[in-house]
C-alpha cells in the first residue's frame, strides 16, 4: 500500500488507531510480536570462542606455548603442565575482562539509544525507539530523529533533513495532505517522515507505517549503528608504550639469556626462563585493564546521572578548564512559575509555587477578581499559544512540554481558565518558537469564526513589533512614554531574577496571507509575565568546588542581562570584577576581540546558540579545554566544536545527544562537576596500575639480570615468574582501577592534555621502586643461597616470596601521589581482598605439598618470614614518606 496516497482517516482505519488516543498496550504487544523490534540489522558480533582464542595470539604467548611443547618432549612434564595451566588461566582472565568491557560498552550504547515520543492510551510517553511499533502515533519536533517511517497527520512548519536517504542536505517542508501522483521516490513523498532522518524545524505528528528493516532506511541497507571499535587517546598511547616495552623487555631478556648461557646454564633452561621473563615483563594485560577501568568508571558515572557516549571524554574531563553551561534547567530547577504580571500599567503578584494550580493574583495586597481588565484575555492567549499539557500523576501536577509553556498553563488555571476553554479555539497555523525568532505565534479562530494572531516571546522582540497596547479602557496607540513604562517593568522583574515573557495579539481577516513576516507586526501589546525558575540547591556548592579545582564556570542564557546578572550573583558565579556580555555586544566582536577579554567574562546573556560557537572558539584560542552544554538542534555545532560536548538527557534533542560526548541524564550542572571528579579519578587510577605493573615488571627483570651479572644460579624458575605475572600482578592491578578519588583530586588544577603517561614523576617512581624491589629480592636470595648452597629450592622460595610480598606491599604505595601513609588502606576493600587472595594463593604454593615440586618451593619458617617481611617492606618504607 502507498501510504502517501491515502488520506489520514484511511491510514487510521487501516492501522486501527486514532491520532487522539494512539494504540493500547495490548495492541502494542501484539504488533511487537508480529513485526519484531524497530531496529536495523547490524554486523554480527564476534563469537565468544574467537574472543577466547584471541587471548593466545600474542607472539610471546605463542613462543611460551612452543617452549612448553619442547619441555614436554624433553620429559619435563610437571613444568610443561604447570606452565600450560597458568597460560590457560591467564587466557580465561583476559577473556572475562574483554567480555566485561564489551558488555559495559553494549549497555552504554543501549542507554544512549534515541527515544521516541508516542501516544498510547491517550497519553504521550517516551519509549526507546526500538520499541516503536506499526500504528504508533509519534510526535516529533525540531532536533528529533524520526524513529520509523511515518505518515504525517499534522505539520506545524515541520521540515526534515533527508540526506541520509537522498544525499540532498536541503530541508524538505512536510504537510499532511494525501498526494495523488503515483510511483514517487521517497524524496518526493512530502507527507512522509522516514526513519533516521532529522527534523530541523517546526513540529509534527504522524502514524508509524513501517518499522525496522521494512522502512526505506532498512530497504537500502543503511546501517545507523557504526560497529567499528574506536580507541581512546589514552589506549592509543598505551598501545605505543606497549610496543616500546616489548622491545626493551626482549632486549633485556635476550641479555639475561646470553649471559646465563655464557655462565654455563643449560640453553633449554635459559631459553624457557627468558621466554617466561619476557611474558612477565610485557604488561599484555594493560590494554584490557584500561578498558575495564574506563568502562567501570563509566558505570559509576551513570549512577551519578552522567552518561558517557564516547570513552575519550573520560580522559578529556580531567583536562577541562572551562565549563560553559546553559542556565535554564541546568543551573536552575526548570520548574517555571509565574510570580508577577504587568498589565494595564500595573504590577500584579501571583501566589503558589511549581506547577500546583492553587494560587491567586494580588494588586497592592488586594486579591483580584478573575474579571480584572485584560487579565483573563492575556492568560487565555498564553494558554492557547502553547504546546504543553498539564498532567496529574500521583496527585501532583506535571508538565508535558516546555516548562515556560507549562507555567503559562498553570497561571491560566489559577484564575479558573479550564483546558476546555482554550480547546474551543481552532488553530489555523502555527509559527513555532526557535532561538533565532525568540517568539512563537499561532493563528486561531474563536467560536464566532473571528480570526486573530497570538504571539508570545521575548519582550525586546515583541515590543518593537507592537503598534498598540491594551489598558483598562481598551486598545490605544503605543507611545514612547508607554514603551518606557514597559521597559521599566521589564528591568524591575529582571533585577528580581525573573524571566520575562510578553504576550501580544493582532486581529486579522481570513484572506490575510499566513506568512509570519506579514502577520507578526502592528501587534497589540497586552502584558508581561515574570517567571521564577529557582536555582538548584546543589549548584552553588558545585560551582565553588569547580573554582577550587581550577575550573571556571560560565553561564550562558537567553535571559535579560539584569536577570542573568542577578542569578549569577545568587550562585556566587560572578566575581565583583567579572564581566557580563550580551548578544548585541557579541555580534560586534570578532573571535580575536572576544579572545582578549574572554577570561574576564562569566555570563553571556541574550545569546543565541550561534553565539556559542564563537564563545567556544575564543576560549580554545586562549588555550582552554572547554566543556559546552546544550539541548537544541542549533547547539550541536558548538557542542561538536567543544572539547567536551554535553547534552541534556531530558530536554535535549537527538541531534544534540549524537553530537555530544556526555549526556546529563538529570540536566543538572552538579552532575558535570561529579563527572569531572570521576574523570580525573579514572585517569589517576589508570596511572596507579601502570605504576604498579611496570615497577613490578622492572623488579622481576632486574632480579634475573642481577643474578646473571653476579654469576648466581637462577633465583626464579619460569613457572614462578608466570605465577607472579598472573596472580600478584593481575588481581591488585584490577583493584587499583576501582580506587576512590583522593581527597584533593578536586583541589588540583586541570591536567594538561599534552601530558605524557609518565608525567609528574611517574617514570622516576616506576624505575626507582622497580630497582629496589629487584635489589631486595636478590639480597634475600643471596643471603639464603650462600648460607645453604646445597638447597637451591630453598633460596628460590625465599626470592619468590620476597618478590611477591614486596609487590603486594608496594601496591598500597601506588594509591597516593604523595605518600603511602596519606591514605587509609581499608578505603579500597577490593584492593585489600585482592592482596589477601594473592597472599593465600602464595601460601598454598609454598605449603601445599602437591604443588611444591611444580612451583619449586619448600616450607618456610618464622625466621624466614621475618627476613622476607623486613626486606619486602624496604621499597615502600624508603620511598613512603616522599612525593617522588
Keywords:
phosphoprotein, Calcium-transporting ATPase, transmembrane domain, 31 helices, alpha+beta, 884 residues, 28 strands, 4 domains, Calcium-transporting ATPase, cytoplasmic transduction domain A, ATP-binding, eight-stranded mixed sheet, eleven-stranded mixed sheet
Helix and strand content put the structural class at: alpha+beta
CATH superfamily of the largest domain: Calcium-transporting ATPase, transmembrane domain
Cα separation of the termini? 75 Å
Count of discrete domains: 4
User: Mean pLDDT, as a whole number?
Assistant: 85
Q: Biggest β-sheet: count, sense, barrel?
A: 11 strands, mixed
How many helices? 31
CATH-assigned fold name of the largest domain: Calcium-transporting ATPase, transmembrane domain
Description:
- This protein is of the alpha+beta class.
- It has 4 domains: 3-43 and 115-219, Calcium-transporting ATPase, cytoplasmic transduction domain A, CATH 2.70.150; 234-302 and 675-879, Calcium-transporting ATPase, transmembrane domain; 319-332 and 536-666, HAD superfamily/HAD-like (Rossmann fold, 3-Layer(aba) Sandwich); 337-532, Calcium-transporting ATPase, cytoplasmic domain N.
- Helix content is 46%, strand content 18%.
- The chain is built from 31 helices and 28 strands.
- Strands 10, 11, 12, 13, 16, 17, 18, 19, 20, 21 and 22 form an 11-stranded mixed sheet that branches.
- α8 packs parallel to α25, α25 packs antiparallel against α28 and α28 packs antiparallel against α29.
- The longest helix is centred in the last third of the chain and has 41 residues, at 669-709.
- The N and C termini lie far apart (75 Å).
- The model is unreliable at 221-230 (pLDDT under 50).
Amino acid at each position: 500500500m502507498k501510504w502517501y496516497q491515502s488520506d489520514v482517516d484511511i491510514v487510521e482505519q487501516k492501522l486501527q488507531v486514532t491520532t487522539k488516543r494512539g494504540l493500547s498496550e495490548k495492541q502494542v504487544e501484539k504488533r511487537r510480536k508480529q513485526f519484531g523490534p524497530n531496529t536495523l540489522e547490524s554486523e554480527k558480533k564476534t563469537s565468544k570462542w574467537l574472543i577466547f582464542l584471541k587471548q593466545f595470539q600474542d607472539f610471546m604467548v605463542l613462543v611460551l606455548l612452543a617452549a612448553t611443547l619442547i619441555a614436554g618432549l624433553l620429559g619435563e612434564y610437571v613444568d610443561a603442565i604447570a606452565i600450560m595451566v597458568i597460560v590457560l588461566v591467564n587466557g580465561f582472565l583476559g577473556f572475562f575482562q574483554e567480555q566485561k568491557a564489551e558488555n559495559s560498552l553494549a549497555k552504554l550504547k543501549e542507554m544512549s539509544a534515541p527515544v521516541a515520543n508516542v501516544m498510547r492510551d491517550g497519553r504521550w510517553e517516551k519509549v526507546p525507539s526500538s520499541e516503536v511499533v506499526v500504528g504508533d502515533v509519534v510526535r516529533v519536533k525540531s532536533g528529533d530523529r524520526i524513529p520509523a517511517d511515518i505518515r504525517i497527520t499534522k505539520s506545524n512548519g515541520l521540515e526534515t533533513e533527508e540526506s541520509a536517504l537522498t544525499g540532498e542536505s536541503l530541508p524538505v517542508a512536510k504537510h499532511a495532505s494525501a498526494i495523488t501522483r503515483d510511483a514517487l521516490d521517497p524524496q518526493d513523498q512530502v507527507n512522509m517522515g522516514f526513519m533516521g532522518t532529522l527534523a530541523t524545524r517546526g513540529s509534527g505528528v504522524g502514524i508509524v507505517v513501517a518499522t525496522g528493516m521494512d522502512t526505506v532506511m532498512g530497504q537500502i541497507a543503511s546501517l545507523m549503528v557504526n560497529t567499528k571499535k574506536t580507541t581512546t587517546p589514552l589506549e592509543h598511547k598505551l598501545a605505543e608504550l606497549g610496543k616500546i616495552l616489548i622491545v626493551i623487555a626482549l632486549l633485556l631478556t635476550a641479555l639475561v639469556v646470553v649471559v646465563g648461557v655464557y655462565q654455563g646454564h643449560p640453553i633449554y633452561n635459559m631459553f624457557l626462563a627468558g621466554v617466561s621473563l619476557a611474558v612477565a615483563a610485557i604488561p599484555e594485560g594493560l590494554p584490557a585493564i584500561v578498558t575495564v577501568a574506563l568502562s567501570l568508571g563509566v558505570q559509576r558515572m551513570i549512577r551519578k546521572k552522567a552518561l558517557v557516549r564516547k570513552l575519550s571524554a573520560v580522559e578529556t574531563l580531567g583536562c577541562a578548564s572551562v565549563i560553559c553551561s546553559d542556565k535554564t534547567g541546568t543551573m536552575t530547577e526548570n520548574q517555571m512559575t509565574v510570580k508577577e504580571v504587568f498589565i494595564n500599567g500595573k504590577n500584579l503578584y501571583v501566589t503558589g509555587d511549581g506547577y500546583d494550580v492553587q494560587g491567586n493574583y494580588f494588586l497592592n495586597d488586594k486579591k483580584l477578581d478573575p474579571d480584572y481588565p485584560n487579565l483573563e484575555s492575556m492568560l487565555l492567549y498564553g494558554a492557547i499559544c502553547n504546546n504543553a499539557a498539564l498532567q496529574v500523576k500521583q496527585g501532583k501536577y506535571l508538565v508535558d512540554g516546555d516548562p515556560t509553556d507549562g507555567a503559562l498553563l498553570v497561571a491560566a488555571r489559577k484564575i479558573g481558565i479550564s483546558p476546555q476553554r482554550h480547546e474551543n479555539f481552532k488553530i489555523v497555523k502555527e509559527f513555532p518558537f526557535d532561538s533565532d525568532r525568540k517568539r512563537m505565534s499561532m493563528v486561531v479562530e474563536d467560536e464566532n469564526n473571528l480570526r486573530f494572531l497570538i504571539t508570545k516571546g521575548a519582550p525586546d522582540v515583541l515590543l518593537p513589533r507592537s503598534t498598540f497596547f491594551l489598558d483598562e479602557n481598551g486598545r490605544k496607540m503605543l507611545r514612547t512614554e508607554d514603551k518606557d513604562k514597559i521597559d521599566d517593568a521589564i528591568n524591575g522583574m529582571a533585577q528580581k531574577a525573573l524571566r520575562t515573557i510578553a504576550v501580544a495579539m493582532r486581529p486579522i481577516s481570513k484572506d490575510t496571507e499566513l506568512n509570519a513576516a506579514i502577520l507578526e507586526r502592528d501587534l497589540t501589546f497586552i502584558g508581561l509575565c515574570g517567571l521564577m525558575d529557582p536555582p538548584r540547591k546543589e549548584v552553588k556548592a558545585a560551582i565553588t568546588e569547580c573554582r577550587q579545582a581550577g575550573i571556571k564556570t560560565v553561564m550562558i542564557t537567553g535571559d535579560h542581562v539584569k536577570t542573568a546578572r542577578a542569578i549569577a550573583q545568587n550562585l556566587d558565579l560572578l566575581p565583583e570584577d567579572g564581566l557580563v556580555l550580551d548578544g548585541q555586544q557579541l555580534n560586534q566582536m570578532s573571535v580575536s576581540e572576544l579572545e582578549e577579554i574572554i577570561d574576564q567574562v562569566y555570563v553571556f546573556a541574550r545569546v543565541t546558540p550561534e553565539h556559542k560557537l564563537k564563545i567556544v572558539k575564543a576560549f580554545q584560542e586562549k588555550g582552554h579545554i572547554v566543556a559546552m552544554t546544550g539541548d537544541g538542534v542549533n547547539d550541536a555545532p558548538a557542542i561538536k566544536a567543544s572539547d567536551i560536548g554535553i547534552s541534556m538527557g531530558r530536554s535535549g534533542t537527538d541531534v544534540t545527544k549524537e553530537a555530544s560526548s556526555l549526556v546529563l541524564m538529570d540536566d543538572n550542572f552538579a552532575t558535570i562537576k561529579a563527572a569531572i571528579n570521576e574523570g580525573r579519578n579514572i585517569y589517576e587510577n589508570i596511572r596507579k596500575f601502570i605504576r604498579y605493573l611496570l615497577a613490578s615488571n622492572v623488579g622481576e627483570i632486574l632480579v634475573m639480570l642481577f643474578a646473571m651479572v653476579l654469576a648466581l644460579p637462577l633465583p626464579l624458575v619460569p613457572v614462578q615468574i608466570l605465577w607472579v605475572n598472573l596472580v600478584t600482578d593481575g588481581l591488585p592491578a584490577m583493584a587499583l582501577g576501582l580506587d576512590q578519588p583522593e581527597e584533593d583530586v578536586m583541589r588540583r588544577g586541570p591536567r594538561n592534555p599534552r601530558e605524557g603517561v609518565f608525567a609528574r614523576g611517574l617514570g622516576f617512581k616506576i624505575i626507582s621502586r622497580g630497582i629496589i624491589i629487584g635489589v631486595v629480592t636478590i639480597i634475600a636470595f643471596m643471603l639464603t643461597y650462600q648460607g645453604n648452597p646445597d638447597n637451591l629450592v630453598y633460596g628460590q622460595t625465599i626470592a619468590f616470596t620476597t618478590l611477591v610480598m614486596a609487590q603486594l606491599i608496594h601496591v598500597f604505595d601506588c594509591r597516593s601521589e604523595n605518600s603511602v601513609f596519606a591514605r587509609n588502606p581499608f578505603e579500597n576493600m577490593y584492593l585489600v581482598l585482592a592482596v589477601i587472595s594473592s597472599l593465600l594463593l602464595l601460601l598454598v604454593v609454598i605449603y601445599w605439598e602437591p604443588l611444591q615440586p611444580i612451583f619449586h618451593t619448600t616450607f618456610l619458617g618464622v625466621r624466614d618470614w621475618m627476613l622476607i617481611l623486613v626486606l619486602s617492606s624496604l621499597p615502600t618504607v624508603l620511598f613512603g614518606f616522599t612525593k617522588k
